[in-house]
Design brief:
The chain has 4 helices and 8 strands. With about 180 residues, the protein is α/β, with parallel strands linked by helices.
């Protein structure tokens, strides 16, 4: 998926913290922050997930939807949905979390492939019209992310320019897991 393209669906095999499955179309009118993570990724646990929790607590859910995407591309046997359920309880994650649908011919899950994610943690922002505005691998400063969210919230629907927001490129470090 490229910047400015509308996200029509994601491929999720199971949901947590929501009574029914969610698709991007269900979130139109809100800015959507997708936090792609793996529960065994040190950068996800120490930085990415706490950031997602802070954003969920800071912005009204009527304006910003925070969605977790557990996208496992390594250690598949250790990161099954039953282990994720315990992880979600332990870390008190209250936002909806989807399990990225595995691929048949590659270890890279379907939504991870669709979004062209480079690894975990990753932050994906969709504007109010569901268009991809940011796809960032690695850690992203809270202030910078907050400013991007503020900019997207200030834009009106249907008049939103489809220009990508691009923070400085990140390099793979010990704070993230590159695929």
């Amino acid at each position: 998926m490229r910047a400015g393209q509308q996200m029509m669906q994601w491929h999720v095999s199971q949901w947590f913290n929501t009574p029914q499955p969610i698709q991007p179309v269900d979130l139109r009118g809100r800015v959507v922050l997708i936090h792609a993570f793996q529960m065994l990724c040190p950068g996800c646990v120490s930085h990415g997930l706490p950031q997602a929790v802070r954003l969920r607590q800071t912005f009204p859910t009527a304006d910003v939807a925070v969605i977790g995407l557990h996208t496992v591309f390594e250690n598949h046997s250790a990161m099954q949905p039953h282990a994720l359920a315990a992880f979600i309880r332990e870390y008190r994650l209250e936002f909806p979390i989807g399990v990225d649908e595995p691929s048949v011919d590659t270890p890279i899950p379907q939504t991870m492939q669709q979004l062209r994610l480079q690894g975990t943690p990753s932050v994906v922002l969709l504007d109010r019209d569901g268009r991809l505005r940011l796809n960032h691998f690695g850690l992203l400063d809270d202030l910078r992310l907050g400013a991007m969210l503020g900019q997207l919230l200030a834009e009106s629907t249907t008049l939103t320019p489809a220009t990508p927001m691009s923070p400085s490129p990140s390099e793979c470090t010990d704070q993230g897991c590159a695929r």
